[in-house]
Amino acid sequence: MPDVNKPDVNKNVKKAGTVLIIEDEMDMRFYLMAMATSLGLESILTRNGVQGLDALCSQRVDLIILDVMMPEKGGALVYQELKTNPLYRDIPLILFSGVDFHSFVHYIKMLNLGRKVPIPSPKYYVEKSADPDYLKEVIKKCITL
Predict the structure, then answer these.
(1) Terminus of the chain with fewer CB atoms < 10 Å: N or C?
(2) Which CATH architecture has domain 18-143?
(3) What are phi and psi of 24, to 5 degrees?
(4) pLDDT in tens, 76-124
C-alpha cells in the first residue's frame, strides 16, 4: 500500500523528449546525439532513410533530425514520405545537411509539379557547417524545451 504522506517524487519530473536521428555519417550521428543529450533528450540513431522510417513504425518520437544525402533512401525521399503521411507529417523535423537550402527547396518545387497537395518547404533547415549553439536553439524551438 502506498504511503499517502510521502510526496510523489516523479510528479514534477518532465519526461525527456525523444529525437530520431537519421544520418549516415557515424561522427555526425554521435555529434547530434551529444547535442540532444546536452538538452536532456533521448536519441534513436539510424544510418539511413529505411532504418529511420522503420524506427518510426515502432516508436513515438518528438523530433526528427534528417540528413539529406544518404544511401538506401536519401533524406529528400524520406522528407517526402514524412510530409505526405498523416501519421508523421506533424512531427517537428529539422533537415541537417551539407546540401544548400535553396537547392533542397528547388528539389521540393520539382516534386510538387503536378501534385494536387504540395509538399511543404522545410520549416527548419540547418546546414552542417552551422554553429552548434544555433543548432541547439533550433532543437529547442522544435521540441519546446
Answers:
(1) N
(2) 3-Layer(aba) Sandwich (3.40)
(3) -80, -25
(4) 899 999 999 999 999 999 999 988 899 988 988 888 898 898 988 899 9
